[in-house]
Amino acid sequence: MAELAVKARQDKALIGISLMLVAFFIFSCIDTSAKWLGVLGLPALQLSFMRYFPHFVISTILVSKGGLELQKFRSRYFWLLMLRGFMLMAATVLNFIAVGYLPLTLTSTILFSSPILICLLSWPLLGERVGFFRWTAIMLGFAGIVIAIRPFDESFHWAVILSLSGAFCFALYSILTRRLAGFVSIDVMQFYTGAVGTIMLLPFALYQWQSPTTLVDWCLLIMLGVFGWGGHQILTEAHRFASAATLTPFGYSFIIYLTVWSYLLFDHLPDIWTVCGALFIISSGMIIWMREMQKTRHAKG
Fold first, then answer.
1. CA 59 to CA 55: how far, in whole Å?
2. CA 263 from centre of chain
3. Stretch (H or E) spanning 165
4. pLDDT above 90 (res 46)
5. CA-to-CA distance for 247 and 14, rounded, in angstroms?
6. Would you give the DSSP letter of residue 246?
7. What is the torsion angle, in degrees rounded to the nearest 10, for the CA atoms of residue 194, residue 191, residue 19 and residue 269?
8. Cβ distance 173 to 91 under 8 Å?
9. Which of residues 152 and 98 earns the better pLDDT score?
10. For the chain, what are the domain ranges?
11. What is the DSSP letter of 183?
């Protein structure tokens, strides 16, 4: 019986890991599609709007299952949900502008500084203690960022600042998600995420709208929001099968996916500085992850 229980846990963990890899593959499709459409000349704010509009439609249908009642959309955490939605929208807009100027390999490396920023912000915003190991990881991560972006090199591009700002907004979004988890259902959180992005970006999208010229490009434009909704749903499902401690390292598959997309579609490979910076940032994230696992084991033991 004990062996069967262990095998069942292992099988569940494998399902969770598989879903995690699928979720980040879908997320990589969002950035790749945004860069592709941006290269064709579609404005970043229009792309950002389309990242949220299909998401909004799908999540509205799901929340209103069984009847369209206003009560289903209400929450005592309304303003936190609005702020959470705004932070993700800001991260999307900043990232979509940045990918128009920077390689996907660099923007994905910068995005994965978010766990470092979350760790740093968890002290003032969540009251969590940041000890020696976490501070070491934070310092290592920031060293990786500096190596990747090379702020004093002539190749430095101003869009890096937008990418870093997007990572900061995503870190705040993640912290708010942590605060709301267990108090607000995933469908309601998804609804507010789609609603904020759709409503706030609609005027800009209408003003700047440019229609794609091919069926493939239309499909990519529409799928931005479907990818966004689907990726978050699958990510949530992954955490039903395995713990965050098990799943976290597999999030770095995002960098690998975008490296492949960048080479196949844009004939670009990361330079040595981006690779070194990514290794520093990944090492930093792994230190934070291992520390969290250690704390979890001590709490259980």
1. 6
2. 21
3. helix 159-180
4. yes
5. 10
6. H
7. 10
8. yes
9. 98
10. 2-300
11. T
Tens digits of per-residue pLDDT, 229-260? 998 888 888 877 876 667 777 888 888 899 99
- The two tokens of residue 220 are 């990519």
Residues 54 and 226 sit within 8 Å (Cβ to Cβ): yes
pLDDT at 3: 58
Tell me the pLDDT tens digit for each residue of 4-37: 555 556 667 788 889 989 999 999 999 999 999 9
**Dihedral of CA 186/192/193/198: which sign?**
positive
Residue 50 near residue 225, CB atoms below 8 Å: yes
237, amino acid identity: E
Query: What is the distance, to the nearest Å, from the Cα of residue 2 to the centroid of all Cα atoms in its chain?
Result: 38
Q: Cα dist. 20→14, 27, 166, 178, 242 in Å?
A: 10, 11, 22, 18, 10
Task: Provide DSSP, 74-122.
Answer: --TTHHHHHHHHHHHHHHHHHHHHHHTTS-HHHHHHHHTTHHHHHHHHH
Q: Give the closest residue to 41 by CA, choosing from 165, 202, 163, 221.
A: 221
With 0-12 / 13-18 / 19 or more C-beta atoms within 10 angstroms meaning exposed / middle / buried, residue 30 is buried
- Per-residue model confidence (pLDDT) at position 273: 87
pTM: 0.85
Closest residue by Cα to residue 49 from 273, 185, 201? 201
Local structure of residue 184 (DSSP, 8 states): B
pLDDT for 112: 81
* 34: its two tokens: 């945004």
Range 222-226 average pLDDT: 93
